[in-house]
Design brief:
The chain has 322 residues and is of the alpha+beta class. The protein contains five helices and 25 strands. It has three domains: 103 residues, no CATH class; 83 residues, Beta Complex (RNA Polymerase Alpha Subunit, Chain A, domain 2), CATH 2.170.120.40; 86 residues, RNA Polymerase Alpha Subunit, Chain A, domain 2, CATH 2.170.120.
Length: 322
Amino acid sequence: MELPFKGNKINLGEGRNWVILAVSLLLAFFMWSVMKLSRNYSSYIRYHVEVTSSIPGRTNSAVSSDELVIGAKSKGFDILQNTRNSGANVLHLASVDPKHFHKSQGGKDEFYLLPDDIRQVIQDALGSDVTVESFATDTLHFTFPVQSNRKVPVLIHSAITYDEQFMPIGEMSIRPDSILVYGEEEIISQITSVAAKTISGKDVKRSLNGVVKLIPINGVRFSHEEVFYTMEVERYVENTIKVPVVVEDAPAYANVAIVPGEVTIKYRQVFGNGLRFSQQDFTVGVKYDDILLNDVVKPQILKAPEQVLEVWIEPKFVECIL
C-alpha cells in the first residue's frame, strides 16, 4: 500500500539541536554580561544636585544650575543605569552645613559650593556601592531666595511625677530657648511662640535630659526641629522651725500685735548636704500697709537660705491688732 504523502523527510532532531544551541548561546551571553556588570569599574557618573541647608534668612532647599560629574568606582550595573538615566539622576544632599556655602558676586541670592568641601556628604548620599575618587566639577552654584523670618520663644510642656522624697531643682532649661520661623509674612506675623511635644516621666528620681521635637506648623519652617532639655532632680529631706513674725515698714509710733506671734516654717533641703539652719536664717513678715487694709494678713518669707528648696508657712494667715 502506498503512503498518502511522498517527498523529503524532515529531520526534527536536527531542528531541535539548533534551538538548544541558540538558547545555550543566549544563556552564556547573559551569564557573561552579569559577571562583567557585577565587577567594579572606574568611570564618570553625572548628577543634578539638590541640597537642603539652614542659611539664616533664606529658603532651605535649592537645585544647582551645574551638573555634578564624579569620578567614581562602582559596579557595572550602577554605571550603566547612571548612563542610561543621565538626564534624570538627582543626588539629594540633606542638611548641608551653611558654612560650606559661599556668597557669589553675581547676585544677591546666589551662592556656590565646592564639592571637595563636602566629599563625605556626597559619599554618604551615594551609599557604600559607589566610591568617590575625584570630582570633574569644581563648583556648584545655587540660588537661595530671601525668606521672611521671625524669632520666637519655645514653650515646653511636661507631665512628670516624682518618686517619694524627690523633686525638681529649679525650672527645666532648654537649648535653644528661642528659634527662627520662616514663611510668608502674613503667616509668621501671627506666630508668638512654638511648642514642643510633651515631656513625660513617672516616679522620676534622677535628673532628666534629652531631646524633644517641636510641633510643626503648616506653611512654616523652623531653624531647629528639636531642642535639648535638662531638669535637675534631687532627693530631699523636710524640716520645720518656728520663726517670729515681724512687721515690715512700720512707723516708729505703731504698736502692732500679731496673733500668733510665731509661725511654723516647713522647708525642704537636699538630702545629705549636711547643712543645719537656725531661726536666725529665716525672716517672716507682714507689710504695715497691708495691715491698714485688713486685719487678717498672709505673712511672707522675707529671708531664707539659698540652699532651701521650698518653704511653707503655717498657719497661712495671721491676725494683726493695732
